[in-house]
């Protein structure tokens, strides 16, 4: 069973969370450390360890808060997501974590990378996920990546291409400002030519607007 280290007071109203950490490609369990950090201030954090037999973990989070889940496991892309723990959660929530192997050709989608609407200006709430990418590149000085920019397929195709180009340039500039050599980062813009979905709903189009990181060299 997963080990637990937590920063919870005895008077807190808590909810138990369970899940597994899984290799997305092989579906095998992954033993690793999982950090749950209270947002927006990070004043409370909890660390759980998934076991190597089933990849299972359990943790107790304080109700009424949002938490950022972060996982950094050797051989895998950094993982980050958000979970809300509110008073409406009456049953035991399951939060499974799927890790992508960091092999050449692998693609990491920056799920929490947000830009101002129709602009190439990065929203400050995106910095934490970008910093995970910075740390991965600092820890692996031989690694080279390609930033690939995508928009939705609505609107002027030429303007969409230009916007996707400007956005990957903005991400590159952020990485360089944190000490990553510019020569380690290639750029490619696709505009709206490679959508994840053809649905026309706003939620579907939000998924199409993304920046992905392709590993070129480990």
Shape descriptor: globular
Written as H for each helix and E for each strand, in order along the chain, the element string is: EEEEEEEEEHEHEHE
Report the mean per-residue pLDDT as an integer: 87
Write down the Rg.
19 Å
Bin the strand percentage. 25-35%
Helix fraction, binned, reads 10-25%
- What class, by secondary structure content? alpha+beta
CATH class of the largest domain: Alpha Beta
Query: Helical stretch count?
Result: 3
- Say what the CATH topology of the largest domain is: 60s Ribosomal Protein L30, Chain: A
Question: Strand count, sense and closure of the main sheet?
Answer: 5 strands, antiparallel
What is the oligomer described by this structure? single chain
- Terminal residue distance: 33 Å
Number of domains: 2
Named at the architecture level, the CATH assignment of the largest domain is 2-Layer Sandwich
CATH superfamily of the largest domain: OmpA-like domain
Enumerate the strands of the largest sheet in spatial order, edge to edge or round the barrel.
1-4-3-6-7
β-strand number: 12
Unreliable residue runs: none
Q: Which descriptors would you attach to this protein?
A:
four-stranded mixed β-sheet, Immunoglobulin-like, alpha+beta, 3 helices, 2 domains, 60s Ribosomal Protein L30, Chain: A
């Amino acid at each position: 069973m997963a080990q637990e280290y937590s920063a919870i007071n005895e008077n807190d109203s808590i909810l138990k969370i369970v899940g597994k950490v899984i290799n997305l490609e092989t579906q095998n369990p992954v033993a690793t450390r999982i950090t749950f950090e209270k947002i927006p201030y990070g004043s409370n954090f909890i660390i759980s360890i998934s076991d190597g037999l089933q990849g299972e973990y359990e943790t107790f989070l304080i109700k009424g808060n949002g938490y950022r889940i972060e996982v950094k496991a050797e051989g895998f892309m950094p993982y980050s997501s958000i979970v809300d723990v509110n008073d409406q959660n009456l049953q035991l929530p399951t939060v499974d974590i799927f890790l992508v192997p960091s092999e050449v050709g692998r693609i990491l989608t920056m799920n929490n990378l947000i830009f101002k609407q129709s602009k190439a200006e990065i929203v400050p709430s995106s910095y934490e996920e970008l910093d995970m990418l910075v740390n991965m590149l600092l820890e692996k000085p031989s690694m080279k990546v390609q930033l690939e920019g995508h928009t939705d397929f609505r609107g002027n195709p030429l303007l969409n291409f230009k916007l996707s180009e400007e956005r990957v340039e903005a991400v590159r500039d952020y990485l360089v400002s944190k000490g990553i050599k510019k020569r380690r980062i290639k750029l490619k813009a696709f505009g709206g030519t490679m959508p994840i979905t053809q649905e026309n709903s706003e939620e579907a189009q939000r998924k199409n607007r993304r920046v992905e990181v392709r590993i070129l060299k480990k």
